[in-house]
């Protein structure tokens, strides 16, 4: 049986909503700079190479204990600014934690084994920086953003207004983006991205 997700974790509407995000495991790399550059593409490639090595392990002699069939989760990014004084439009100032969620049978030992295997078969400098992390975001606001990434501020404004109406405030400046399709393969207006940030009660 495939792993089940909490409702709405990777599917949501184009209107803001509150969601409780549980503790999840990820393969993650940390970086800085313009996401349109070649370095970002290499980081993305490293995460997918590792994630598919784990997914396809059932075909070989190193199938992890507790393995269940599943679909590789979408790419996610947590975004911040290196210099908070610079405009958010300065993409060279971006700081990111880029990650792909891993199923529950991926333990730290399983992660280390398949990371070593991926390094041997598909060398990539970002594999040397990859980490296994566990995060519990807790209460968050999220919505589905349709369209170019540069238009996201309008969606964030809607999310913040919704939170204030519900008696919540944004808890951190960072935000998470979950990429539901490949922007290289669809028209800009068809890009689908889940936007999410942590919230807390007012007062």
Per DSSP, the total helix count is 3
Domain module count: 1
How far is the first residue's CA from the last residue's CA? Answer: 43 Å
Order of helices and strands: EHEEHEHEEE
Broad structural category: alpha+beta
Can you summarize this structure?
By secondary structure, the chain is of the alpha+beta class.
Structural descriptors:
203 residues; alpha+beta; Multidrug-efflux Transporter 1 Regulator Bmrr, Chain A; six-stranded antiparallel β-barrel; 7 strands; 23% helix
Description:
This protein has 203 residues and is of the alpha+beta class. It has one domain (17-201): Multidrug-efflux Transporter 1 Regulator Bmrr, Chain A, CATH 3.20.80.10. The protein contains 3 helices and 7 strands, in the order βαββαβαβββ. A 6-stranded antiparallel β-barrel has the order 1-3-2-6-7-4. α1 (38-55) packs across α2 (108-121). The longest helix is centred in the N-terminal third of the chain and has 18 residues, at 38-55. The radius of gyration is 18 Å and the shape is globular. The chain starts with 16 loop residues before the first strand and ends with a strand. The mean pLDDT is 94.
């Amino acid at each position: 049986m495939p792993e089940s997700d909490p409702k709405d974790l990777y599917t949501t509407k184009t209107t803001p909503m509150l969601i409780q995000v549980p503790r999840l495991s990820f393969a993650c790399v940390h970086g800085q700079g313009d996401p349109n550059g070649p370095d970002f593409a290499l980081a993305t490639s490293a995460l997918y190479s590792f994630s598919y090595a784990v997914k396809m392990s059932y075909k070989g002699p190193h199938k992890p204990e507790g393995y269940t069939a599943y679909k590789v989760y979408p790419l996610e990014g947590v975004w911040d600014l290196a210099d908070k004084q610079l405009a958010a439009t300065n993409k060279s100032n971006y700081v990111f934690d880029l990650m792909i969620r891993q199923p529950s049978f991926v333990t730290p030992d399983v992660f280390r084994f398949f990371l070593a295997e991926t390094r041997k078969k598909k060398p990539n400098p970002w594999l040397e920086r990859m980490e296994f992390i566990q995060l519990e975001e807790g209460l968050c606001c999220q919505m589905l953003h349709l369209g170019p990434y540069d238009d996201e501020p309008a969606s964030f404004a809607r999310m913040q207004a919704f939170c204030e109406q519900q008696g919540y405030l944004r808890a951190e400046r960072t935000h998470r983006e979950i990429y539901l399709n490949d922007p290289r393969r669809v028209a800009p207006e068809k890009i689908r991205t889940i936007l999410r940030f942590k919230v807390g009660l007012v007062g």
